[in-house]
Amino acid sequence: VFINHGGGPLPLLGKQPQIAKFLKAYPSSLPAVPTAILVVTAHWETRSTLKVSGGSSHSLYFDYGGFPKESYEYQYPAPGSPDLAKQVISLLAQRDMQCTADPTRGWDHGVFVPTTLMFPKADVPVVALSLYSSQDAAAHLAVGEALQPLRDQGVLIVGSGASFHNFDYFFVSWKQARDPTVRQEGVKHSKQFDRWLTETVTSEGLS
C-alpha cells in the first residue's frame, strides 16, 4: 500500500487531520494484524546498493527542522526484525539486486510517523528499506516484484512518501499563500501529476 505520511511530524501534531484520520483507520481494513511492516521510505536514498534496517531495535531519526520541541521527543519502541531484513536481502539478491543491512540508522519520519498512527501500541515489528537515488521507476517496480512473496507471510509492505513533492513550489507558495493565483497554480500542477500517476499505475501494462 502507498500512503502519504504528511509533512514532517505534522500529522502527529494534529496539523494534518485528514492524513492522521486515514492512517489511524487503515489497519481496520486489513484482514489480520500484520506479522511485520516493511516500510519503503522516501527519506532514505542509496545509490546502487539498497539498505534495509537490520537491527533488533532502532532509535528515531528526526530528519526535519523548525518544528515544536515535542516533535523531537517522540518515541516509537517497536521491535525491528533482523530475520525479515535477511529475507529482503535474499529476495532482492535472487533478482540480482544488491542490498545490505544497516543495524544503526534510525527510523526517519517516513517510517515512524505513519507507523505511530497506524499501530500506536508499537507491537508489530518494523523494517525500513531505502530507495534508489536515481528514482528510476523500472528499478523500483523490480524491487516490488521481488518482495511480493513477503505478502504471503502476512508482511504489510508500505510505500511511504508523497506523490507530489516539489519543495521549490512549496516554499514559494508558503510565502505567497495569500495570493490565490499562486495557490491555484500549485493545485493545478499537482492534480495534473496525480492524474498522470493514476493512469500510469493502473494501466494494463502494470496492473
Task: Report on this structure.
By secondary structure, the chain is of the alpha/beta class. The chain has 2 domains: 2-162, 3-Layer(aba) Sandwich (Protocatechuate 4,5-dioxygenase, Chain B), CATH 3.40.830; 164-207. It has 6 helices and 6 strands, in the order βαββαβαβαβαα. It has helices spanning 17-25, 82-93, 109-118, 137-147, 167-175, 180-201; strands at residues 2-4, 36-46, 50-53, 99-102, 126-132, 155-161. The strands form 2 sheets. The chain has a 4-stranded parallel sheet. The mean pLDDT is 91.
What is the fold's blueprint, element by element?
Elements: E1 2-4, H1 17-25, E2 36-46, E3 50-53, H2 82-93, E4 99-102, H3 109-118, E5 126-132, H4 137-147, E6 155-161, H5 167-175, H6 180-201
Parallel strand pairs: 1-6, 2-5, 2-6, 3-4
Keywords: Metal-binding, Oxidoreductase, Zinc
Cofactor: Zn(2+)
GO molecular function: ferrous iron binding; oxidoreductase activity, acting on single donors with incorporation of molecular oxygen, incorporation of two atoms of oxygen; zinc ion binding
Identify the CATH architecture of the largest domain. 3-Layer(aba) Sandwich
The separation of the N and C termini measures 14 Å
The overall average pLDDT, rounded, is: 91
Helix content range? 25-40%
For the biggest β-sheet, the strand order reads 1-6-2-5
Please give the domain count.
2
- Give me the CATH fold name of the largest domain: Protocatechuate 4,5-dioxygenase, Chain B
The amount of beta strand, in percent, is 15-25%
Following the backbone from N to C, one meets helices and strands in this order, namely EHEEHEHEHEHH
Low-confidence stretches: none
- Helix/strand-derived class? alpha/beta
CATH class of the largest domain: Alpha Beta
Domain Extradiol ring-cleavage dioxygenase class III enzyme subunit B: 33-168
Protein name: DOD protein
Pfam family, one: LigB
Cofactor: Zn(2+)
